[in-house]
Amino acid sequence: MDEMNLTELKKKLHDSEQQYRSLFRYTTNAIFIIDRLGRFTEVNPVASRLTGFNETELLSMGVYDVLGESQRSIFALFMKAALNGEVSCFQTELLNRRQEKVFALMTIVPRQMDGSPQGVIGIVQDVTKHVQTKKKIKQMSKEDALTGLPNRQYVAEQLEGLLRQQEQLAVMFIDLDRFKFVNDTLGHFLGDLALKELAARLKANLFAPNILARMGGDEFVAILPGQAEKKDIVRIARQLLRHIRQPLLINGYEFTLTGSIGISLFPEHGRSGEGLIKAADVAMFRAKTKSSDSYQFYESDMRSYFYERFYVENDLRRALDKGELSLYFQPKFDVNTRTICGEEVLVRWKHPEEGFISPEKFITIAEETGLIVPIGKWVLKEACQQKKSWIDQGYPPIAMSVNLSLRQFLQKDIVDTVKEVLRETQLPPHLLEVEITESVTIDFERTLEVLHQLRALGINISLDDFGTGYSSLQYVAQMPIHALKIDQSFIRNLGKGKNSEAVIAMIINLAHFLKIAVIAEGVESEEQLAYLKEQGCDTVQGYLHSKPLSASDYQTFLADKGGHFSGQNDKNP
Ligand code: C2E
Ligand code: MG
Ligand code: MG
Known about the structure:
With 573 residues, the chain is of the alpha/beta class. The longest helix has 24 residues, at 3-26. The site of one magnesium ion has 4 residues, from loops.
């Protein structure tokens, strides 16, 4: 080799050594030069950062000191391969100074000197963030972010798995009633808090091996493996409903929600997970149309959820246009004089094929679909028109009450609507009364405002179905209402040892203390009437005196009762 070539070669070597040094120093990967025994002989700054040990410390350590225990034998295999001249790349876990796991993508390259293996070079890329994100995504894909419960996909997978192991199981589809209102009135933030609280309540009542999942929105699914006894399932469903209906206190708002539960059974109602969930969903919808706060087992003749919903909704939409809705009137009687002192308007739907459909059944759907707004408007206007016509004919000027559902009550223009109807029909406002339920306390401030505006129109307000809603008594004291209607269930349970007597007595005392009148509804017997009279109840309504009557029957009833109207004897037709 001549002088010239030698200089060139030295320069080249020097350059490549420089390049190697730069690479070693500035790469974003950690580089460990490891000897045949696994000791570190050289490390770069990233290696220090990655492990948390400084260079001097690392040089006194070996690769096995920073490998997680489970990784050591695997590393040894790759090391052996590298010493035989092979390059490999694998994922491993290192432990840093603080004994935290660092997920690493490691490439090991043989390091040869004069053709013989001296050790290996370990090039390590930190992929911890990547691995954690992936884990989180995996977790997230199984978990509902709001409640932390398993989500729809996960529960479907679990259910499929269980169907292979279990001989029997039950699936419950749980849906909150009118949850939309919570979101609409209190906002999504409080709505979410309510969902979280209810999810926790449900969860606390469904221990392993039962599974509770959130399907989205206000829908939950519970899987009860091994359950076959209907009575046990019913007990659980009732218990869940009871826990849902306990008052919620969210950011100072107190309100009550109820739920509807549909139940399907394996293997009777379906053999696939999807089929069972669908069947439970259909049954849930049926439960909701029956009445809120109830459960229902799947039955094979149930139509599909969408069909059923579509069918009822569609028919109901047409009912108004086709004149299938009509008004019934039920008189109210003064307990002391036993004379008529008012009436309640109750809507009826005569379906062309199904016959009469009870308002209990269609009002809920009308509420869910928003159809309650046009239906409610129609009821109000029709009732006021009818009433005005009776007044004009000389029938007694007793007050007529119309039910307002929560959704109607929450309409922004409800006060304007009532005002407009009064103006159009020319009905004197003091003859109109609206019945609202405790559910309106869901947004109490707004409720108070609306109630005061309604009162300012000159109409009266009564609180219907009182005693079922768990709303606290302090609400009642603040509301400008003139009457409380004790819920029928208390009257029905009179004399049945269910403490109804105590509840009724308490409501009457409370109401009178607040100078509010008390109406008992669902009074069917003389015994019930006698008890109510003894307790000082003011007004009764029920089959004992009269069932709800069509407009023409009620008119006849009014005419026949001539001379028995409360304090209005001189004005009879
Ligand atoms: P509500 O306002 O509590 O009405 C009382 C219900 O009890 C009526 O049922 C009435 O027919 C029934 N009832 C009255 N006396 C007796 C009795 O002695 N024994 C028994 N077992 N039942 C009696 P209906 O007409 O089926 O109405 C059910 C519910 O549907 C009403 O409960 C009310 O909340 C709602 N509703 C009815 N009409 C309307 C309406 O026009 N608008 C709204 N928003 N809701 C309505
Ligand atoms: Mg009512
Ligand atoms: Mg009632």
